[in-house]
Design brief:
The protein has 15 helices and 17 strands. By secondary structure, it is α/β, with parallel strands linked by helices. It starts with 15 loop residues before the first helix and ends in a 25-residue tail after the last helix.
């Protein structure tokens, strides 16, 4: 423990973090996984030249909320820079050092925001979560990476894995591709920290790589190559984090397969058939649990008949032990009137103790359809739900429980179609049952303690046996 008169020792941890702060390359990409200490490394690198007058550093996150959130760049910097005698100017997110050096935090939410920096002279540039930035922002800011303070300008990036064809961060994957194992998707440890040189061709797309500056210069007379390397880091490299938060690894292991693989450094895994939901992970049971504490049926509505998308209604229950059971699925291609009749019939069969959620499509038409359905279900606990995020993102909590073996399915004639659609997700032709199942799961999980359900203001959620007072709600 450090006493009030002692100064704490601020230094990188041995391994990749130390390698990151020792690299002579113009551009260093660090991380490619969750937890190796990327943010601390970026901040510590900025402090290296804090004793140099006129030294300037700017560290970027894509949006302002990310910049100032708990555990973000600004908060983390308050644990380092005051020990170096710096004064903070929170209104501009700057640190002023006794030497006259300045370190600033900033964001570039819109791609065009990079243009506002075109007259800047920034000795040290850093991008935290570089995969969230556009390629044009990276290359433009490289032109602002210049210095007259006596320190050679350089740029550092902290990142997580991103797919090669990602519309935002795919450029970063392509930039570090040489350092990755194409077969496994993980970084090649034998190439960690190896420096290569490149120039960007006049077409703005092609990169000419070489193993030495002389090689690249010979092919591009008059051009100065940029040196670049990639230093992969893993959670196990961050001994301090693992000691402070020993549960963090278990939290990552609890992620669905695709997100878990990316968290541990896989750059090529993607959501394809069998990677989000493995049909073998579902447990088929003969009957619904008698000890369910809550039930919900979630409807993903479609208005087409004899073609197009399906309407799917998934009835799911939750037990106090944290087991989830898909008790029934109704699915069909119906006209709007027939669909509403089907929903009404199932509401009566499920009982007033079952919460009903109706997915509300965007726009005025979706709102009007939801309002009609809610009025039709007067006397039941019903809510029109306006989900956010794409179906894949919404399915992640549900997928994690499926993989853990915590989701059961009551055997029935609908099971095969249900399992097949889940296994094909997100590549399959339809995702209506997945959307309805993840919607029911998320609502039940919310009521299980991850947040107060909105229905509780009306006297609490109904009991499983249907004894609660019927209520109609639309939020």
């Amino acid at each position: 423990m450090t006493t009030a008169t002692e100064r704490p020792r601020i230094a990188p941890q041995p391994g990749p973090q130390e390698m990151f702060l020792s690299s002579p390359a113009d551009v260093v990409v660090f991380g490619g996984a969750r937890g190796p200490g990327k943010t601390f490394g970026l901040l510590l690198e900025a402090a290296r030249h804090a004793h140099v007058p006129r030294f300037t550093a700017v560290l970027f996150r894509r949006t302002h909320p990310e910049l100032v959130q708990a555990g973000g760049l600004w908060q983390a910097s308050t644990e380092i820079y005051p020990h170096l005698g710096a004064r903070q100017r929170q209104s501009t997110l700057e640190w002023l050092f006794p030497s006259g050096a300045r370190i600033k935090m900033a964001h570039m939410q819109h791609e065009s925001d990079a243009q506002s920096w075109k007259s800047s002279e920034i000795c040290y540039l850093a991008f935290d979560q570089a995969e969230t930035f556009a390629e044009s922002q990276f290359w433009f800011m490289l032109t602002c990476n210049r210095s007259t303070c006596g320190v050679r300008p350089y740029l550092r990036l902290g990142c997580n894995p991103v797919l090669r064809d990602d519309p935002v961060g795919g450029w970063l994957h392509r930039l570090v591709e040489w350092w990755l194992d194409a077969g496994t998707g993980y970084p090649r440890r034998d190439r960690a920290g190896v420096v290569r040189w490149l120039v960007r061709e006049d077409d703005g797309q092609t990169l000419d790589w070489g193993e030495s500056a002389a090689e690249v210069t010979a092919r591009n007379p008059g051009r100065r190559p940029v040196s670049l390397t990639f230093i992969p880091g893993r959670l196990e490299d961050n001994v301090i984090l693992e000691a402070r938060d020993p549960d963090y690894r278990q939290k990552l292991l609890a992620l669905p397969k695709v997100e878990r693989e990316r968290a541990f450094g896989n750059w090529v895994i993607r959501a394809t058939s069998g990677t989000v939901f493995d049909r073998a992970a579902f447990v088929v049971v003969p009957a619904a649990p008698a000890a369910a504490v809550a039930r919900a049926r979630y409807w993903d509505k479609a208005g087409t008949e004899a073609g197009g998308d399906w309407t799917a209604g998934v009835l799911m229950s939750r037990t106090a032990a944290g087991l989830w059971t898909v008790e029934h699925v109704e699915r069909g291609r119906w006209s709007a009137d027939r669909r509403n009749n089907v929903i009404r019939q199932h509401a009566a069969g499920d009982g007033v103790g079952t919460w009903i959620y109706l997915e509300q499509e965007p726009g005025s038409g979706g709102k009007e359809s939801a309002e009609i359905s809610v009025r039709d279900l007067a006397g039941y606990v019903v809510q029109a739900d306006r989900p956010t995020g794409d179906p894949y993102a919404r399915a992640q909590p549900y997928a994690a429980q499926v993989e853990a073996g915590n989701v059961r399915i009551v055997d029935g004639p609908w099971v095969e179609a249900f399992l097949r659609e889940h296994h094909d997700f997100p590549d399959g032709a339809h995702d209506d049952q997945v959307t309805a199942a993840s919607g029911a799961f998320n609502k039940l999980a919310l009521a299980a303690g991850f947040g107060a359900p909105s229905l509780s203001v009306l006297g609490g959620p109904p009991t499983a046996n249907g004894s609660a007072r019927p209520v109609t709600v639309q939020l």
